[in-house]
Amino acid sequence: MDSGFTLRAPRNDKRRNPMPAILGTGEHRYRVVENFAKLPDGWQLTDVAAVAVDSLDRVYVFNRGAHPMVVLDREGNFLRSWGEGLFSRAHGLHIDADDNLYCTDDGDHTVRKCTSDGKVLLTIGIPAKPAPFMSGEPFHRCTHTALSPKGEIYVSDGYGNARVHKFTPDGKLIKSWGEPGTDPGQFNIVHNIATDSDGWVYVADRENHRVQVFNGEGKYETQWNNLHRPCALCCCGGRSPTFVIGELGPGLDINRNVPNLGPRLSIVDAKGNRIARLGGEEGPGVASGKFLAPHGIALDSKGDIYVGEVGVTNWATSFPDQEMPAVVRATRCLQKLERVRE
């Protein structure tokens, strides 16, 4: 599907967006790239649940539109799509060192390992057959994956469970941990998961407003606080990694218009100390420099950030009395933030 399409020309309305916004401070400043995704004419991404970047800086956009996996180059040009008829509801995406993609589908309760052109290599879970609600058995609306240094697969699970599962590289269950609640090692929507090169496991415990940290066997170590509904979680690599955390804005009518709650991105060090915060002071929006609902994050080799947002799903929560602009469903749920280099 690499040819035969007419690409939509990017719009440049200087009256509405006179200059691209710059977010952050100091060494962590990012310029919003306006109209990044250049899709075939008539295509829409709708919600972008997750993004990943491969070794060639190709951007994989796991979305809930008619073409679940859209592949772009780092300038936003359309390369191809795949996954039509395969996925039920895009949720999580992780890429390994060999450019294999781990696609988490919370609509049919599976994780599929795929090649970069969409060939399915492994399926974990039984499509369309969830485990009983809160049973602890995999899966009931699983959300995301991460890999150990040995290639073992961690799966956060998710909406209908409160568990982390650990599998062998070929998909055999090793162990599980977690239960519903607010104590250490308990979860209230285990929404995302990441690992580092030392094997630590980081879990976005969304509705408990924290990220919990475990060793590779599921032993609780610590937690990061001062977060608001952490939803996306990306480890930036290295021996002392930084992390980018996507935080959702308020989900309740009573605090919908309260400032300084997001949606936003926070950059933290390996101990969870905040280094920078991008956006979120004045709530959600479609203007340059604002977010709708950050749900997935990836970085390329240049340090640029790609943000997938579920702005279509979240629109009625954030803007119950406003009609959703057409651009939200088309391309606005994918943003690129280009690192400012002095």
From TrEMBL:
The record's keywords, sorted A to Z, are: Glycoprotein, Repeat, Signal
Q: Which domain of life is it from?
A: Bacteria
Pfam families per record:
NHL
Q: Where is this region: Disordered?
A: 1-21
User: Does the entry feature the keyword Glycoprotein, yes or no?
Assistant: yes
Outline the NHL repeats, range by range: 146-170, 178-217
InterPro entries, per database record: 6-blade_b-propeller_TolB-like, NHL_repeat
Name-wise, this protein is: Bll1368 protein
